[in-house]
User: What shape does this take?
Amino acid sequence: VQPASDGLEDVVVAETELSLVDGEAGRLVVRGHDVEALAGAVPFEAMCSLLWDGALPDVPRLERTRRALGRARVEAHEELWRLGSALDAAETMDALRAALSHLSVDGLAPDAARWRITGATAVFAAAGSRARRGERPVPPDPERGHADDLLRLLEGAAPHPARARALDAYLVTVAEHGMNASTFTARVVASTRSDAVSAVVAALGALKGPLHGGAPGPVLDMLDAIGAPEAAEGWLARELAEGRRIMGLGHRVYRVRDPRAAVLERALERLAQEGIGSRVVALARAVEQAAVRALAERHPRRRLAANVEFATAVLLDALGLPRAFFTPTFAVGRVAGWLAHVEEQRARGRLIRPSQRYRGPLPPVAASA
Ligand code: COA
Assistant: This one.
């Protein structure tokens, strides 16, 4: 009898043209482009085009995508009044999930539905974060890029262009990443021929967990708790002795450092050149090195290195985002990948329905009369 495939590790569930995650080489390729060549070089709108249409847009097409996404943000803002108390949830991710489930894309062509959902994710996330602080939502500016406007929607004022550029690089970096838990969730929902909003709402639920997209807030909590580089070793040893996981370290696929971490560090460096520095960058470096050493001692056969969430925490903190907004920001980028997978699953996938092995008792065999 074959053992159950715990965590579906190494199980191939789809043929895809969207991305390659090479865990041994530490490489992420999205539709033929290395992530290093995309982040910082193309805006998020171009990444959407790449994922959904198969190629990076030329200049006129990029302009159309910017307008489509700008319009989608304005329409989402006009929907806010319909949401009732959905945005009042204590956590921004819960507010975003509740708000998105009110969205309807009935009657829209798939392309229009994708822009709609992507625009609404940014607008609802920002409005949810503001609601937590007792602030009213800010109307979107359709002329701005998506990253630039996201900061405006969150903060109520036009951001420094260097901050918008860094956030844009972040959104591009996290837009697509293979068959991760939330993307798989989206594909499972799409495989039943359910609608794209349902797939995205389900994916949000998967993203929120601390083993997936919920990690960067706790990474920053950890850096705060450690406080100084010399305290890292002792703090980490105590956590591991208690059986707790170190957030931002380890990955299901990568056996080397997550390539996205280096991409985000470059964005952080560019931000520093503009005079926007991080208060935790030196501490983060020391903690990462100490954590890699401590985990190597405990798991000599499994190489555990920093993942994207470690670098995310440092970058988004340098950008001045509240830590409760880290995972919603991840969702604003990743929704582009989810929607590409939903389309791919619809176009050529079958109903996803794996098996299980029953280990419980059977009813007693009825005594024959
Ligand atoms: N801290 C402590 N121990 C860890 C660890 C971490 N960050 N990551 C993995 N391990 C341990 C596991 O508990 C396991 O130990 P065991 O064999 O004694 O049970 C061993 O290392 C091997 O784990 P692995 O098979 O590589 O983990 P996984 O593929 O099931 O899980 C993650 C991958 C990402 C969920 C896991 O590394 C983790 O929990 N990381 C922290 C959360 C995080 O940063 N998530 C964001 C991911 S992008």
